[in-house]
């Protein structure tokens, strides 16, 4: 159940990284992560790259 909630929050973060100009810290906060460092750790564990690397590779809004 917790893993499902994490997936939902990560998917919301992916969408925001692609289509918004929010900072990564703002994205982490609005997606329900307690801190940016926790978001960064969970994101890297799931996708193998940092949120900043993902955003740069996907050509998201900076």
Architecture overview:
Helices cover 73% and strands 0% of the residues. By secondary structure, it is mostly helical. The protein is globular, with a radius of gyration of 11 Å. The N and C termini lie far apart (33 Å).
Topology of helices and strands:
Elements (H helix, E strand, L loop, with lengths): L1 H18 L4 H7 L5 H12 L3 H8 L4
Give a brief description.
The model has no long low-confidence stretch (mean pLDDT 93). The protein contains 4 helices and no strands.
* Number of DSSP helical runs: 4
Which residues form runs of ≥5 with pLDDT under 50?
A: none
Shape: globular
Strand-pairing-aware structural class: mainly alpha
Proportion of residues in β-strands? under 5%
Q: How far apart lie the N and C ends? A: 33 Å
Relative helix content: over 70%
What is the radius of gyration?
11 Å
Order of helices and strands: HHHH
- Largest β-sheet summary: none
Q: Output mean pLDDT.
A: 93
Number of strands: 0
Index terms:
62 residues, mainly alpha, 4 helices, globular
